[in-house]
Amino acid sequence: YEEADQWVEKxxxxxxxxxxxxxxxxxxxLKANIAEERGMSAEAMRYARQSLFYDHKTxxxxxxxxxxxxxxxxxxxxxxxxxxxxxxxxxEALKYANANDAVYxxxxxxxxxxxxxxxxxxxxFFSKAFDKIHPGADEKTLLNNSGGDILNxxxxxxxxxxxxxxxxxxxxxxxxxxxxxFIRQALVIYRTADRLL
Length: 197
Known about the structure:
Elements: H1 2-18, H2 24-37, H3 41-58, H4 61-79, H5 83-96, H6 99-115, H7 119-133, H8 139-144, H9 150-153, H10 156-177, H11 180-196
Helix pairs in contact: 1-2, 2-3, 2-4, 3-4, 4-5, 4-6, 5-6, 6-7, 6-10, 7-10, 10-11
């Protein structure tokens, strides 16, 4: 991370020196990510705010969505385990997200609710994420249309992660309840993901 930080600092100096503010938001977003990974929460938030300022100023809405999502996921969800703050960041990210970005943001929201064992809300957000790929879609729809346009409209990595996260949610629900219907549902989804791959 130290080497990465040095490269980003060099790029930031060059951008500021040349007066090119177009990439400042992205570079500051990288600084925020590096600080998150190094466990420097206050610094990560400071760089994220700066990133949001420049991305908003230059109209880089996808950059704003990414910065909010990264704050929610990397800092609040993974590092600090502050689910409410993570959900707030995801809600902010959705304000700037296009449909493709919204898939992974909604998936992240669902995963917060899985961790909270609020499975009804989790499955609601999984459904909303699938709706961003194609209205009314689920993993079976994607498998049946894998040769069509649906998979070409969204990032395949986001789709696979969404499907696997949904299966994992059913597995966790089974572990909580002991109800075999949930482990069966998880297996069906895992098999669908395997076939889709």
